[in-house]
Specification:
Elements (H helix, E strand, L loop, with lengths): L13 E5 L3 H12 L3 E5 L4 H4 L10 E4 L12 E4 L8 H8 L4 E3 H7 L5 E6 L4 H15 L6 E5 L17 E5 L2 H6 L7 E4 L7 H4 L2 H9 L10 E5 L3 H7 L5 E5 L8 E4 L2 E4 L8 E3 L7 H16 L4 H10 L8 E6 L2 E5 L6 H10 L7 E6 L11 H7 E7 L3 H8 L5 E5 L1 H11 L5 E4 L12 H17 L2
Parallel strand pairs: 1-2, 1-4, 2-3, 4-5, 6-8, 6-9, 7-8, 9-10, 10-11, 16-20, 17-18, 17-20, 18-19
Antiparallel strand pairs: 12-13, 13-14, 15-16
Length: 462
């Protein structure tokens, strides 16, 4: 399939938008603004969609309860991330020769920015993306802007079309977004880590890897991709990268960025100069790795080390990722709602390991098909009690029984109430669910905000 060309699909054509979530609504508004007729199509009932679509322009028509043959009149269709590629509607569209593009590619087709920086990985990509954005904000000369978008919660179609040629767009890219993107060529990219995730969507690990690899597939000479040398899957995949390869790792051997003596150290290829920077003040080994990746991306695009250091000093982390949110009766509360898989929850437990067994851990939500056994060694080191919520509760109890007391709570409200009741001064109530949120919440952000509201209400009620 050829890249989306705004000259080929002239104004006035009918464009379909499959899936009317956040990115679907955003790209629908963009296409209407650019002069296209738009048909939005969603499988959800009208009553559920109506409140969400009040912000759509009147020129955008929409349908509900499934996808009709009206889509076959479209010149092209935009697929929202998360829709499974094996849905019958995509087979029908392919049979009719109607091209299907990602929201990412459509948005960038209307962008004037010459440089895109893209970050992906199973875990850590939001923190790394936010930090990379801060690095470019600090390092770009006056008159150039760094724009933040993507899976971090800001649709690309809401940002990229307003960009200038000198701007840099920093994107967090999910496997869903990359899977749908055929012609995506960032000037710099990063692949942080890969563990099994989203296999209910991709079907196989091979398909998941193929999606992640699209972050560098279309790169060429003069581009660069940053890889985690300590991740065997990432390291093996990096051999397929056609652009310059930059590696970060735990040791300064055959890597371009590493941590040593409390400093983050960088040495680019063909350079004898070593750069040493103080890391951001964030907990956990994983945040050192995130900073190594962000630093390499900045250096690869010519930013000064002093600007990168400035960004590192100012960075306070991202919402919903090991986010301190107050204390109640001396019990510290931490919102890690973005830990939607087991590996991400392991990272949170590792970050709290120096404190000993002082965690009250809230686990649960929508089960993603993976065992919770990898949590065991870290639970034994850090956790004094588990509070389960959501539909995955029974599976969690089966996998983790006998390690520490488990309190079936059902809801987040009950878990917070119970944790604050049984906790003691110096303990930490940690929401790190290791599960998706969709059984009880719209997304992990709503879950995290609810946790913070509950903690805030408990603090005021003292």
């Amino acid at each position: 399939m050829k890249p989306f060309d705004v000259k080929s699909f002239k104004k006035g054509k009918l464009a379909g938008v499959l899936g009317l979530g956040r990115s679907g609504q955003s790209v629908a508004r963009l296409l209407v603004k650019k002069g296209y007729k738009v048909l939005g199509s969603d499988s959800r009932p009208k009553a559920e969609l109506t409140p969400m679509l009040k912000t759509l322009p009147k020129a955008a028509k929409w349908e509900w309860n499934g996808h009709s043959d009206r889509l076959l009149k479209c010149a092209f269709v935009v697929k929202s991330p998360g829709l499974k590629p094996n849905l019958p509607v995509f087979k029908t569209l392919a049979h009719k020769g109607i091209p299907v593009y990602s929201e990412l590619e459509i948005a960038l087709a209307f962008s004037k920015a010459k440089a895109v920086v893209a970050i992906t990985g199973t875990n850590g990509k939001s923190t790394t993306t936010q930090l990379t954005w801060e690095v470019f904000k600090a390092g770009l000369p006056r008159g150039r802007k760094a724009l933040l978008a993507g899976n971090i919660g800001i649709p690309v179609s809401a940002v990229a079309p307003a960009s200038k040629p000198t701007d840099v767009i920093v994107l967090e890219c999910s496997s869903y977004q990359l899977e749908d993107s055929v012609h995506f060529e960032p000037r710099a990219s990063a692949l942080l880590n890969i563990t099994a995730d989203h296999l209910d969507h991709h079907g196989t690990m091979a398909a998941y890897l193929a999606a992640k690899a699209k972050v560098f597939r279309e790169q060429g000479p003069g581009d660069a991709c940053v890889f985690n040398a300590d991740d065997p899957i990432v390291y093996k995949l990096s051999r397929e990268c056609p652009s310059d390869r930059l590696y970060f790792g735990t040791k300064g051997i055959n890597v371009h960025a590493w941590e040593e003596g409390g400093k983050l150290r960088f040495r680019l290829p063909r350079s004898k100069k070593e750069i040493a920077l103080a890391p951001p003040k964030l907990p956990g080994r994983h945040n050192l790795e995130n900073a190594l990746a962000a630093g390499l991306l900045g250096l690869a695009r010519g930013l000064k080390p002093s600007a990168i250091q400035k960004a590192f000093r100012a960075f306070k982390g991202v919402e919903h990722r090991l986010e301190p949110c107050g204390a109640v009766r001396g019990i510290n509360c931490v919102n890690d709602s973005k830990a939607t898989n087991v590996d991400s929850a392991v990272v949170a437990l590792k970050a709290h390991a120096p404190g000993g067994k002082r965690l009250l851990l809230i686990l649960g939500g929508l089960h993603k098909g993976f065992p919770y056994a990898p949590l065991k060694p870290w639970i034994e080191r850090t956790v004094k009690g588990i509070l389960t919520i959501g539909s995955a509760s029974r599976r969690i109890e089966e996998d983790l029984s006998g390690l520490v007391p488990i309190f079936p709570c059902g809801t987040l409200e009950t878990a917070v109430e119970t944790g604050l009741k049984i906790g003691e001064k110096g303990d930490t109530l940690l929401l790190s669910p290791a599960c998706a949120s969709f059984d009880q919440f719209k997304d992990f952000e709503e879950r995290g905000r609810r946790f913070k509201d509950l903690v805030g209400a408990a603090a005021k009620a003292r």
